[in-house]
Amino acid sequence: MTKTVSTTAHGSALTTAVLGRRPFRGWLVSAAATVMTTYGVDLAATGFGLLLVTLVSGLGLAHGVVVAAWVASYVVWWLGLRVNLQANVNLLERTGTSTNLLSKGAFDLATRLGGDRRTRRLAACAAYLAAELALEVPYYVGAFGLAAFTDLVSTDNALMFLTGANLGAAVAVYAVARATHHVLTRRFASFETDWVPGDYLADYYSRVEPDEEETIAYFVEAMRQVPAGRPMLFFGVGPTLHHVFLAATVASEIHLGDYLPGNLAEIRRWLDHDPEAHDWRPFVRYTLQCEGVARPTDAEVSAREELTRQRVTRLVEVDGRVPAVKTGDYSTVVSAYCADSATSDHASWSAFMGHVLDRVGVEGRLLTAALRRSSGYHVGGRYFPSAHVDERDVRAVIEAAWGQGTASVETRHLPAQAAHGYDGIVLAQARRPSGGNGVA
């Protein structure tokens, strides 16, 4: 897919401390979720604890067995909690909300202080764990208090109650994790069934938006370093051509790849001079201005359009979720707002980017762009995912594949776009070092 815009003010705009139209909604939702999950977990823990005491009180279990069961219950509790911690950080990254207020506060603070993704996630998990451990205190005070001051409850009874409470809490937090996962997966539309290219073009390409002004200007400058006279691949072009015009004077051939046949069909309409095809002339005009033409004439715009039509020789279906059958085919690959727009989590995005990088040949170049910490975007009233990445993530995934110092990464801050759910973009170019497959 291609460029995305998140229009949810409670998404990544909150996690990057950019105030959208309803800046406190994330906190209100998190507060409500915290109350519900806390009471739900407490109810399950208390119920399981009382049930276990009732079931085993007459069995005469040895003290060592009781202690072993109590210790084992913490292993089960941790396994359930670990799943929930992962679900919670995913929820924070994608929506700016949490099932634990303390965790949200730690995540937002780490974000404001400029922490990288790992730091933000660790802060959120540590705060969540601290809150859960604090909730253990009343159980111990109550259970051992009764054991110490009355004859109604023995030490073994207290331990069995705590064992049951841990098991109940494990079940409850795992249920919270599954519910969180369900919310995250159900809230996104499907590219296969819900994507409408015409809606996307109408929503975002009626004019040159500020993020595209920055992206096109950056790519025009980067294209000056690209080897001329060789085939070039645009990976994940979507139904768009706004980044393609700047390559027409450099590439010998341009190959446009996308996952969805409908996107490629939309491009084919423009290539075939279909009068109903999208009008890209404002983007061509801006591209020429970035190249140094102060006032492009209609004739110059038309000439660049026709040159682009001549250079585009292939429309190919590509899938960044799977490795390329043949790697290292191109001296230049452009993949703008693609991997971050086609995935919903960091792991999937990283794998996707790796498959894009594999397309670049020895000493070839990658030009790429991503929305900074975007969680999703609307097209025609439907909500599609985005992977919530930033400049550190982009640099890390490139340098993990090609080595330290191979990537040049920049950011552009766009505060006017905060209402759309992001306040900046990440722009990068990288050169693959010697070694590996050949270049087309």
Architecture overview:
With 440 residues, the chain is of the alpha/beta class. The chain folds into two domains: 12-186, no CATH class; 191-431, Vaccinia Virus protein VP39 (Rossmann fold), CATH 3.40.50. 53% of the residues lie in helices and 13% in strands. The protein contains 15 helices and nine strands. The strands form two sheets. It has a seven-stranded mixed β-sheet with strand order 3-2-1-4-5-9-8, sandwiched between helices. A two-stranded antiparallel sheet has the order 6-7. Strand 6 (376-379) and strand 7 form a beta hairpin. The radius of gyration is 27 Å and the shape is elongated. Residues 1-23 and 436-440 have low confidence and may be disordered.
What is the level-2 CATH architecture name of the largest domain?
3-Layer(aba) Sandwich
User: End-to-end span in angstroms?
Assistant: 24 Å
Radius of gyration: 27 Å
At the fold tier of CATH, the topology name of the largest domain is: Rossmann fold
Helix content: 40-55%
Average residue-wise pLDDT: 87
According to DSSP, the number of beta strands is 9
Q: Which stretches are low in confidence, meaning pLDDT under 50 for 5 or more residues running?
A: 1-23, 436-440
CATH class of the largest domain: Alpha Beta
Secondary-structure element order, N to C: HHHHHHHHHEEHHHEEHHEEEHEE
Strand content: 5-15%
Q: What's the name of the CATH homologous superfamily of the largest domain?
A: Vaccinia Virus protein VP39
> How many domains, in number, for the residues?
2
Number of helices: 15
Please identify the structural class as seen in this structure. alpha/beta
The side-by-side strand order for the widest beta sheet comes to 3-2-1-4-5-9-8
Main beta sheet strand tally, sense and closure: 7 strands, mixed
Name the overall outline.
Answer: elongated
